[in-house]
Amino acid sequence: MKKNKYPQVKNTVIKNLLKEAEKNKIKVEQIDPHFLSFILRYKNKKHYIFSKKYGLNKVNGAIVSNKYLTSKALAKTSIKVPKAFLCQNISDVKKLLGQKKIKYPFVIKPFDYSLGVAVTANITDFEMVKMAFGRIKRYWQRSFKKNPKKLKKNFMVEEHVKGNDYRFLVLNNKIIAVTQRAYPEITGNDKDSVKSLITNYYQSLKYYQKKNKKPLFDKELKRNLKMQKVSLTDILAKGKKIRLRQAANVFGGGIAINVTGKAHPFYKKAAIKAAREFDMSIAGIDLMTKDISQKGDYRVIEINSFPAFDMHENPDVGKPLNVSKLVLKAIFPALK
Question: What pLDDT, on a 0 to 100 scale, did the predictor assign at position 257?
C-alpha cells in the first residue's frame, strides 16, 4: 500500500491489514472515504471491512446498519439501488440540487436508523427540505441527549422511487416471507371528519392494537394533509381517499399484506442476492417495484440485519406466517 493512500485510516490494525492485503495481491477497494470502509477481493471471494472491525465477527451486519454505506456497496454490484448522497446541512442539499445531482422528488432520512424514524419521502420543494431537516435535527437531539459530543452531523438524501413497498425476509438464502407495506390511507364516508377517520384507521391496525399505540398526528401527517388541501375538521366525500404518510412503514401506520405467494422469482432472486452480498444468514430486504407479480424495474432501498417479524406473523391482510418457528429451525435443525 502506497504511503498515505488512505490518510483517514488511523487504526493501526486496519492500516496493517490493508498493507498486508496489497502485499499479497489482494485487491483493496474503498467503498466511500466518509467512512472507514473497504472491500477486499481475492479470486472469487469478497470480504468487507468496516469501522474498526475487520470482518470476522459479524462485520457485515454492522455495515448494513449504515443505510448510506449499504447503498454505496450495492451500487458496485448488479443490484439496482436509488441514487444516494451524504449531507451535513441544508446547504449541502441546495448544492446537490444546483449541480443537478438530485432532483425533486427525493427522500431525506437518517443513515443509521430504522422503523421509519425521521424519514421524509416525496419531497417536492425547498420548504419540505427545511421541514425534513428539522425532523433530522430533532432525531439527532433525542438520540444524543445524554452525550451531545457524539451528535451525528450526516444524513442521507436519496432518489424517491415510485411504486409499492415490499419487505422480503431472507433466511439461509431462501425467501420465507414477502409482505407488502401499503401506504396508510383513509376513505371518506360523507359524515366523519378527517380526524375521526384517521383515529378509526389507526385503531383498526393489528400492530397498533397489539402495541396499544396512539394515532399519529405529527408534522408528517400535517404535511400530507396540506399537500392534498385537506384539514382535520373536513368531511370527506364518500369514496375520496387521502394518503396519510409518504412512507409505508408498518410502524408509521402502513398496512401489512402477505404477498409471499405472489412474488415473482425475479424479485426473490434480487433479494437473495442482496443478502448474499453481505453474507447474511437472515436479512430483511426492502424493495420497491410497481407490481410484485410481474418482472419489471425495481430498487433495493435498505437491508435490515435485525428484521422485525410482526408484519409477517400478524399481517392486516392475508395468512399469518410462523416466521419465528422457521428461524428456530434454522438455528436448531433437529427441531420439528
Answer: 95
